[in-house]
Design the sequence.
C-alpha cells in the first residue's frame, strides 16, 4: 500500500516507518519543513492546514493516511497550539482521507 504518514520524524515515527517498509508498504512522510535526508519519500505540508497543507499535485494517490502527528505540553500558553496540531491535525487528516 502507498501510505501517507504524519509525525514520521517524531518519537515513534521512525519505528513506524521502518516497520511499514519491512511489511512492503511505500511510505510518504509529511514534513513540516525540510530538514533531513530520509530513507523514505517526503512531502512538505502542515497538519494544521486544510488538506494538510500539501500543494496540489504534490502527493498523488495514497491508499491510507496514518496520523501520528502530535505534541505534548503542560504549559497553559500552548493550549491553542495543542488544539491546532492534535485536534485540528486529526480532523484535517480525516478530511483529506475522504
Sequence:
Amino acid at each position: 500500500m502507498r501510505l501517507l504518514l504524519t509525525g514520521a520524524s517524531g518519537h515513534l515515527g521512525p519505528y513506524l516507518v521502518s516497520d511499514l517498509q519491512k511489511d512492503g508498504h511505500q511510505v510518504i512522510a509529511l514534513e513540516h519543513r525540510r530538514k533531513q535526508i530520509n530513507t523514505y519519500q517526503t512531502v512538505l505540508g502542515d497538519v494544521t492546514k486544510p488538506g494538510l497543507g500539501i500543494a496540489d499535485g504534490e502527493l498523488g494517490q495514497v491508499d491510507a493516511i496514518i496520523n501520528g502527528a502530535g505534541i505534548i505540553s503542560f504549559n497553559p500558553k500552548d493550549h491553542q497550539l495543542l488544539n491546532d496540531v492534535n485536534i485540528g491535525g486529526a480532523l484535517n487528516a480525516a478530511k483529506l482521507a475522504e
Remarks:
- The chain has a mean pLDDT of 90.
